[in-house]
Write a structure and sequence with these properties.
- The protein contains 5 helices and 7 strands, in the order βαββββαβαβαα.
- The chain is of the alpha+beta class.
- It has one domain (2-154): endopeptidase fold (from Nostoc punctiforme) (Alpha-Beta Complex), CATH 3.90.1720.
- The strands form 2 sheets. Strands 4-3-2-1-5 form a 5-stranded antiparallel beta sheet, covered by helices on one side.
- It starts with a strand and ends in an 11-residue tail after the last helix.
């Protein structure tokens, strides 16, 4: 099983800006999320604004500032997913992509860089959890959380 971690803590100024734009686009309970990560075991993968790159950290626990979506997945597919994520570690953080896909709905991004929800959405598309009708850069942390919750009967099938 993998987990998608949805950050709802206070955070820094960047988190506040993300939340403000999400509220403008869709004022709902999902706008409280300003960041997202993929958790495999104790490894947390994310495109980090603070570190200006894709990174992985070993973390054994996090405070109540996170909500989680659990996604059943076979060991084989978790390995495939982790190969993809490891290949992205060190790539840059896509600030321009956020501006041109989240603030201005142009879906323009840098294919060599990621922002957090874009990386997570792409990984979930590769694994067949999300379909490709939307570009990965369309997903904000709020849209990603909403998409995962709105899946059929809130149950995500085991990816084999």
């Amino acid at each position: 099983m993998i987990r998608i971690a949805h950050y709802k803590g206070k955070g820094n100024l960047f988190n506040k800006i993300i939340r403000a734009f999400q509220r403008l686009r869709s004022p709902n309970e999902y706008a409280k999320y300003s960041h997202t990560e993929i958790v495999i075991g104790e490894r947390w993968y994310s495109a980090s604004n603070r570190e200006n790159k894709v990174r992985v950290r070993q973390i054994s626990g996090r405070s109540g500032k996170w909500d989680f979506t659990d996604i059943p997945m076979s060991k084989k597919n978790m390995d495939i997913l982790e190969i993809f994520l490891k290949s992205q570690v060190g790539k840059g953080y896509d600030r321009l992509g956020i501006a041109l896909s989240q603030i201005l709905p142009l879906q323009i991004d840098d294919p060599k860089k990621w922002f957090c929800s874009e990386l997570v959405a792409e990984a979930l598309m590769i694994m067949g959890v999300l379909d490709r009708r939307k570009h990965a850069s369309w997903y904000s942390p709020a849209r990603l959380k909403r998409a995962l919750e709105n899946m059929e009967n809130n149950i995500i099938k085991d990816i084999r």
